[in-house]
Design goal:
Number of domains: 1
CATH architecture: 2-Layer Sandwich
Number of strands: 3
Shape: elongated
Helix content: 55-70%
Distance between the termini: 61 Å
Strand content: 15-25%
Radius of gyration: 20 Å
Order of helices and strands: HEEHHEH
Structural class: alpha+beta
CATH superfamily: K homology (KH) domain
Length: 129
């Protein structure tokens, strides 16, 4: 139980610090603006932090999404050094960056449910005639 709280605390600190680096323009990588850190998951052994990314532009193409992830991967060494200094720790988890598809999936489910509701309403109107 204590381990879970520790990983959660570390994940939240990493999310805050990486977000601050982006917001303050500290990442000197093309395309590093507008990136949002939606969540961070740290493994139980504190060895890996999985950083999930979004962007302020909700209509990004798949290529643009890959570019965002690539930007963060290129900046990984700098980010880890900064995290070490900001967290006051010699050991900083290895960082892995992923596009967060959670919101995309939720929106798609909502779209499908709306489509089903419209089809059901159309069928009921057809049966009532």
């Amino acid at each position: 139980m204590a381990g879970a709280k520790r990983t959660d605390r570390l994940a939240e600190r990493i999310r805050e610090e990486v977000s601050n680096l982006i917001l303050r323009g500290k990442l000197h990588e093309p395309g590093a603006t507008g990136i949002l850190i939606s969540r961070v998951q740290v493994t139980d052994d504190l060895g890996i932090a999985r950083v999930y990314l979004r962007h302020q532009d909700p209509d990004m193409t798949e290529k643009n999404r890959r570019d965002v992830v690539g930007t963060m991967r290129r900046a990984k060494g700098f980010i880890r050094r900064e995290l070490g200094a900001r967290l006051g720790s010699k050991h900083v988890p290895d960082l892995e960056f992923f596009w967060d598809r959670g919101l995309d999936n939720a929106l798609r489910v909502e779209e499908l449910l709306q489509q089903i509701a419209e089809e059901d309403a159309a069928k009921r109107r057809g049966e009532d005639s």
